């Protein structure tokens, strides 16, 4: 986060955001079916898939899960938390994939949710 938003981002701001997202993540964790995780694990294990293709598969999974989220939550927030929960579940299922899934998740968040994360950080700082 600091690399993206500069050193002016206070650690307390990051802690507040992380706590909020973790709480939501705990709720989402129970909703994500093993099949979704296992399908993504198989994609990550496929050495022939490019980083772009893996990111697209992650995006499709997140968007599919986000459609089931109650409409009272910001879609971007739901997608951010779902991406992080999926990352955790994939790494727990197949620890050897941690580096690849983490890199993919960072790429996904950077491509799809960068503006949302920037708005969230600036809102907490104010």
UniProtKB/TrEMBL annotation:
InterPro entries the record matches: Bcl-2-like_sf, BID
UniProtKB keywords? Apoptosis, Cytoplasm, Membrane, Mitochondrion, Mitochondrion outer membrane
A single GO BP: positive regulation of release of cytochrome c from mitochondria
Q: Its GO CC terms?
A: cytosol; mitochondrial outer membrane
UniProt cross-references to SUPFAM superfamilies, sorted A to Z: Bcl-2 inhibitors of programmed cell death (SSF56854)
Report the superkingdom from the record. Answer: Eukaryota
Q: Where in the cell is it found?
A: Cytoplasm; Mitochondrion outer membrane
One Pfam family, short name: BID
**Entry protein name:** BH3-interacting domain death agonist
- Gene coding for it: Bid
